[in-house]
Amino acid sequence: MSFTVYPAVDISEGRCVRLLQGLFGSETVYSEDPAEVAASFCLAGAAWLHVVDLDGARTGQPQNRDLLVDVVRSAKCPVQASGGVRSAADVEELLAAGAARVVLGTVALEDPGALAALCRENGEQIAVSLDARGGLLQSHGWTVGTGTSVLEVVDRVSAMGAWGFVYTNVERDGMMAGPDLAGLQAVLDATTLPVIASGGISSLEEVRAVAKLGAAGAIVGRALYEGTFTIPEAIAAGASA
Q1: Which residue is catalytic, options 53, 131, 173, 180?
Q2: 33 catalytic, yes or no?
Q3: Cβ contacts of residue 181 below 8 Å, gap of 6+?
């Protein structure tokens, strides 16, 4: 499996932002036009995008759903969409709009039966988000601690038929402090499904390190927005691991 770089397009109040450690109120606004940002990433050579309705993830209501759908429809590369996806109807809406994959977080933790049904229906187009603080999963847009361990959910979900996982160490997200390689390795060791790494990547060497562990890809946000490296450079780094 080739390594994929996923530029992040995080949407809050209609704008393209990045949070620090998943904390609302810590937003840095990078653009008033998320669709334009998405288009620029595709033009720069991205093979995929990771697009999130942050407000929807927190509240469970599709607060930026129309904009998310617009990004999905207009993007010139496949989109992995998430944020506020709580039901089969939400999944169907995003897939019908053209999303290549939908990422589920809160519903995967709170309603395993619903997740299993969605995997039976759309397995290869479903990924499960593992958003962790201190090894325990967070839900509702990283605002609610669940007390559930990452590996417990990996074990539960691995047999359901989902495509794979997105692992984020929330404490590192947006901090440019390096990825959680130990946590990522633990998830990789616990499943044969693909795992995408997210949170903290700040250098090409860190992209290579994630790829060397065997991750299927990496979601990169702030480092791209602030020009630390380019999408082609990140793709080349992952390929060289």
Answers
A1: 131
A2: no
A3: 209, 210, 213
